[in-house]
Amino acid sequence: MARAAVHRRLTWQPATVAQVNDETATARTLLLEVPGWPGHVAGQHVDVRLTAEDGYSTQRSYSIASAPEVDRLELTVQRVPDGEVSPYLCDIARPGDQVEVRGPVGGYFTWQPESVEPVLLVAGGSGIAPLMSMVRGRAGANSRVPFRLVYSSRTPEDVIYARELSRRVRDDRGLDVAFAYTRSAPPGWPRPPGRLDAPLLTEVGWPADFAPAVFVCGPTGFVESTANLLVSQGHEAQRIKTERFGPTGG
């Protein structure tokens, strides 16, 4: 059974890097051990703080990618050029290093395994991270709720969790995944490269009359355009939950 996040006053906690996995040329997953971690709900995020020897500190927020029932906290970070936090996490952090985390944060953009309506997940780039927590949480809870994931990525090489997604689709009849490539597509791909559009959402998403729970995560422009497309297709705006990110200094 997935653990529910405990409501408490949020404080900074030490976290030790237990493992690092390179996902793409610009994205890395870090597994963190956080003593006393209270648990989280799929879709939540944490604040990560780095402190230099001279006392200077900086922090950024990152979505939690791990399933709620997993003890180690899993964060997938996309490197931001000239950033302060993401370059360290993507290029320098090694097992045994310590950072500080605060969370879990957020209660709106979350999915609970007790939900029964079909789910449509739409990800742009590294916006896949909180949606992957939902995919993993669904599997960990043995939920039979059907999931459909539409993932927009620049190229096949930029797809985060590519192998895991392929395995999960192969082993789970309740999970479907479709890709939209914006820069280059694999040889023989049925669609030319381009932005996620209404025809693809109609083809691979849930019909509006199914009243699915919809979660959209990615860059601000992507999220806004996708939400508008879904509303134009008849999806109720209140059933579309969005999480967006933009230039923050990384």
TrEMBL record:
Cofactor(s) it depends on: FAD
Pfam families to which the protein is assigned, alphabetical: FAD_binding_6, NAD_binding_1
Keywords of this entry: 2Fe-2S, Iron, Iron-sulfur, Metal-binding
Keyword Iron part of the UniProt annotation: yes
Domain FAD-binding FR-type: 10-111
Matching InterPro entries: Cbr1-like_FAD-bd_dom, FAD-bd_FR_type, Flavoprot_Pyr_Nucl_cyt_Rdtase, FNR_nucleotide-bd, MRET, OxRdtase_FAD/NAD-bd, Riboflavin_synthase-like_b-brl
Domain of life: Bacteria
Record's protein name: Ferredoxin reductase
Lineage: Bacteria, Bacillati, Actinomycetota, Actinomycetes, Micromonosporales
